[in-house]
Specification:
six-stranded parallel β-sheet, seven-stranded parallel β-sheet, Rossmann fold, 18% strand
Length: 377
């Protein structure tokens, strides 16, 4: 196998081969839940709409067999086992002709860099959040430095990566999440509100995994602030959408704070039902300290909700530095209480704020097309 292209050098194709094939090695693909899966689906869809791209072949670790994909996108059978995913990735790289190798997670960068170098193909690496914030081991640092293009979901993640990666900053670009058109202002779902006992209540909403490893999302902070919020807004209630291994601890925290009767754990909600759950709320709040971006902020804003987020992470990009919502110090309890009370007293929101449209899918697709043409064509 060859020595590979020099990092930073564009892969140029011409003639009949001017439309490129992308081999995408991703963690979460079509049919998988979560924000990374949604980002990957949006990216694959945008690539499929670029006239510079012939087709995309994706190998996910997690996903759904037979999940629908856009034209030009083929998703191979998901391989949840790490070893089977690696073996399949190597076999595909040897057997399939491709022009660009896309790696959807930093932890897979060493494998992707090895494949790209062996096949003399350019590497496109995607980084999302906390996985790229701390200095990783030597293998990941060397692999990252060999990428021809790195896309980061936020300025915060880009800056943290550049603090440890020896790479030309021009090769690290911000490509933020995009919001699905399913999220828009819609009628109040009265039947759903009755099911949860929310009629006549003022609802604070958080949507996100309840994972022990993601306590940075800030559910604890809202539970801890709820008693003070209710002193000023007695009808306030906290609706938590999501599931995970941290739920029992959060339930115990609500008991300890004396607000267990005012915290509703809705569990995991089907994707088709999520837009109606946003419309149940009066305010969306997630005072996180570890979000790479936070697509849920955009989904809430597009649904017409006021949004509260922390200013220490990629949430600032999602809120356009405060244009789309309110940024607070997530560690300042008084700021959180004041922001929640203000939003709840203001009443249910109407139209989405100015600025949400910049994250619409057509804009995202245009950015993807421009990146492909500039760095690889």
């Amino acid at each position: 196998m060859g020595a590979g292209l020099e990092p930073g050098r564009r892969r140029t194709v011409s003639g009949n081969n001017s439309r490129m094939t992308v081999l995408a090695l991703i963690s979460d693909g079509f049919g998988a839940p979560g924000g990374i899966a949604q980002y990957n689906r949006d990216l694959m869809t945008a690539l499929s709409q670029s006239s510079a791209v012939r087709d995309i072949v994706a190998l996910p670790r997690f996903g759904q067999v037979g999940a629908p994909t856009p034209p030009k996108v083929t998703q191979r059978r998901p391989q949840p086992g790490r070893l089977s995913w690696v073996v399949n990735a190597c076999e595909m790289a040897l057997q399939l002709p491709f022009d660009i190798l896309f790696c959807g997670h930093l932890n897979a960068a060493p494998l992707a860099a090895l494949i790209a170098r062996g096949r003399s193909k350019p590497l496109w690496l995607q980084v999302h959040g906390i996985e790229a914030w701390a200095k990783p081991g030597t293998a990941i640092r060397k692999a990252t430095a060999r990428a021809h293009l790195i896309t980061a979901v936020s300025r915060h993640t880009r800056a943290r990566l550049l603090s440890w990666c020896d790479i030309d900053p021009a090769r690290v670009r911000v490509l933020p999440n995009t919001v699905d058109a399913r999220f828009h202002v819609r009628a109040y779902p009265s039947e759903l509100a009755s099911r949860y006992g929310l009629v006549g209540r003022k609802v604070i909403l958080t949507v996100g995994r309840l994972a022990a490893g993601e306590q940075y999302k800030g559910h604890d902070r809202i539970i801890g602030a709820l008693a003070d919020v209710r002193l000023n807004v007695p009808e306030a209630v906290y609706l938590v959408v999501g599931s995970g291994d941290d739920q029992l601890r959060l339930e115990a925290a609500a008991v300890a704070a004396g607000v267990r009767d005012h915290v509703i754990f809705a569990g995991q909600v089907a994707a088709e039902d999520l837009p109606d759950h946003f419309r149940l709320a009066d305010v969306f709040a997630m005072p996180s300290t570890g979000e790479g971006f936070g697509i849920v902020f955009l989904e809430a804003a597009a649904s017409g909700l006021p949004v509260i987020a922390g200013h220490r992470d990629g949430s600032a990009d999602a809120l356009a530095d405060g244009v789309i919502g309110t940024l607070i110090d997530p560690g300042n309890r008084n700021e959180l209480v004041t922001a929640l009370i203000g939003a709840l007293r203001a009443g249910r929101a109407g139209m989405p704020p100015d600025g949400v449209e910049r994250f619409a899918f057509p804009n995202f697709a245009t950015q993807v097309d421009a990146l492909v043409r500039h760095h690889f064509h």
